[in-house]
Amino acid sequence: MCALPTVRDIPDEIDLAIAAVPAESIDAVLDDCLAKGVKALLVVSSGFGETGPKGATQSGAWRTPRVRTGCG
Predict the structure, then answer these.
(1) Mean pLDDT score, 10-34
(2) How far is 58 from 4, CA to CA, in rounded Å?
(3) By CB count within 10 A, which of 1, 11, 12, 27 is most buried?
(4) How would you label 4-31 residue by residue, b for 16+ Cβ within 10 Å and e otherwise?
(5) What's the confidence (pLDDT) of residue 22?
(6) Is the pTM of this model over 0.70?
(7) Domain presence at residue 28
(8) Is 1 within the bounds of a domain?
(9) Is residue 21 part of a domain?
């Protein structure tokens, strides 16, 4: 097993990805997973609603369906 820079670099099909990243990194991870065709994404993070209004706004933004990929 080896480490790869992004989920896009994984040569196999992915059924489930688990992202343990800070809130400010989740958009890039989500975009990579959508581009790769990942079927499910579990996010383990902090820096969203528990940090106040700014984090709550950020939380709502990344959950918005990504229309360009047909997700949502």
Answers:
(1) 89
(2) 27
(3) 27
(4) eeebeeeeeeeeebebeeebeebeebbb
(5) 84
(6) no
(7) yes
(8) no
(9) yes
Task: For residue range 23-67, list pLDDT tens digits in order.
Answer: 888 888 888 998 999 988 888 887 766 666 666 555 555 555 554
The total of structural domains in the chain comes to 1
In a domain, 54, yes or no: yes
Cα→Cα distances 63→13, 21, 50, 67, Å: 23, 16, 16, 12
User: 25 is in which domain, residue-wise?
Assistant: 13-69
> Please, are residues 55 and 49 in contact by the beta-carbon 8 Å criterion?
yes
Residue count (the chain) = 72
Closest Cα to residue 66, out of 46, 24, 36? 36
